[in-house]
């Protein structure tokens, strides 16, 4: 493994850090999340058209940068520092990779160039609260997360003229502002039960998207209702390929999310350090107290470890065998570090840190919100350990 970043990767980080520092202060973030889109659309166009962020992982043949998960992880680490609300994660880390992996040549040519240029934003819609399960980050009975042929979830029905979807998907990241939806739906009934992915235009008749209240406003979520909505099968009718693509996308997305959480944790730590330098207790700077130093030192170690794990996971997605499935473990470590850093920041800011409008609360809510969406931490680790066979008895050994 070569741990050094290339000049291009360093440039991505430097340019984005400067832009975020200039245009994404806490007041700008709070204003952006209260808009109809849930993000600053002008900033998104800058990120897309001038910096090419949504196209970082898209092949050059489709107008993208032809990069790897590492470039996207570095970009999200920088946006994570300021909790920049944008459709980058939903579009570039969840929807676009599925279109690239499963789509036909016509589907790739139709959608990937528009995503890479920022003309189209996309979102992955899965039924209920099953996003982590659909991405292979948590365990469940195969197919159950998509409805399993029973009432609920999203169902696909095909007649002689077209394919239509019925049902509802919750917790769709940036689904209310997306132009294109990648929808996981159950098909085949009981006789040939399977889960496939479908492309649905957000402005198609029968598609109703409503933004939901979320603990973390910087991570907008929507409820998508599909009422006889016309859809297009993504790729071919191969449930095995869909499951593999979702798992591969989940591993890459987890690495990207880990980098984003590590960036947020590092920013939270910096704010806490600044706070204890300014606060005084008994006539002394709070930062001079040994207890405060020890607590901050523990957070520093956790943040650095999370950052290293995120970098390794991003690199591992590009290894020769495809992936080492390090994403879930890196995400668990990063979410734990962010939770710890945010909790310490709230406490070390004193009474003001517990106020809902304080900046520290943004990071605390991001930590809690991401665990609700992708965790909890112990579930990520348990599933990764089970998948690696750590709890499986070897021949001749006791279980």
TrEMBL record:
Identification of the protein by name: Acyl-CoA dehydrogenase
Signal peptide start and end residues: none
Species: Streptomyces boluensis
A Pfam family matched in the record: Acyl-CoA_dh_1
Record domain Acyl-CoA dehydrogenase/oxidase N-terminal: where: 6-119
Cofactor(s) the protein requires to work: FAD
Family affiliation: Belongs to the acyl-CoA dehydrogenase family.
Acyl-CoA dehydrogenase/oxidase C-terminal domain segment(s): 255-387
PANTHER family membership: ACYL-COA DEHYDROGENASE (PTHR43884), ACYL-COA DEHYDROGENASE FADE28 (PTHR43884:SF20)
Keywords, alphabetical: FAD, Flavoprotein, Oxidoreductase
A single GO molecular function term of this UniProt record: acyl-CoA dehydrogenase activity
């Amino acid at each position: 493994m070569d741990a050094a970043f290339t000049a291009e990767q360093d440039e991505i980080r430097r340019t984005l850090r400067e832009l975020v520092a200039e245009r994404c202060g806490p007041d700008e973030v709070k204003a952006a999340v209260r808009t109809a889109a849930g993000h600053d659309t002008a900033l998104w166009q800058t990120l897309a058209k001038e910096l090419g962020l949504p196209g970082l992982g898209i092949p050059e043949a489709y107008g993208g940068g032809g990069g790897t998960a590492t470039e996207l992880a570095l970009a999200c680490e920088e946006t994570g520092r300021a909790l920049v609300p944008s459709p980058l994660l939903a579009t570039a880390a969840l929807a676009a990779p599925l279109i690239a992996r499963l789509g036909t040549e016509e589907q790739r040519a139709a959608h990937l160039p528009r995503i890479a240029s920022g003309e189209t934003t996309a979102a992955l819609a899965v039924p209920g609260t099953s996003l982590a399960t659909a991405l292979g980050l948590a365990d469940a009975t195969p197919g159950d997360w998509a409805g399993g042929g029973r009432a609920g979830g999203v169902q696909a029905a095909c007649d002689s003229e077209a394919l239509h979807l019925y049902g509802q998907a919750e917790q769709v990241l940036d689904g209310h502002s997306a132009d294109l939806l990648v929808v996981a739906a159950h098909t085949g009934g009981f006789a040939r039960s399977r889960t496939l992915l479908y492309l649905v235009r957000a402005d198609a008749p029968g598609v109703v998207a409503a933004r939901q209240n979320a603990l973390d406003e910087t991570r907008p979520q929507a409820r998508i209702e599909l009422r006889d909505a016309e859809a297009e099968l993504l790729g071919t009718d191969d449930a095995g390929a869909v499951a593999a693509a979702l798992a591969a996308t989940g591993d890459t997305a987890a690495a990207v999310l880990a980098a984003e959480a590590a960036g947020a944790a590092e920013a939270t730590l910096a704010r806490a350090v600044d706070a204890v330098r300014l606060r005084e207790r008994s006539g002394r700077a709070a930062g001079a107290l040994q207890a405060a130093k020890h607590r901050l030192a523990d957070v520093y170690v956790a943040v650095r470890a999370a950052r290293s794990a995120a970098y390794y996971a991003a690199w591992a997605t590009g290894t020769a065998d495809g992936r080492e499935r390090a994403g879930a473990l890196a995400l668990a470590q990063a979410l734990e570090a962010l939770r710890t850093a945010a909790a310490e920041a709230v406490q070390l800011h004193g009474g003001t840190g517990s106020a809902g409008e304080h900046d520290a609360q943004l990071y605390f809510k991001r930590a809690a919100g991401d665990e609700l969406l992708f965790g909890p931490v112990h579930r990520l680790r348990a599933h990764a350990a089970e998948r690696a066979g750590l709890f499986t008895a070897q021949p001749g050994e006791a279980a």
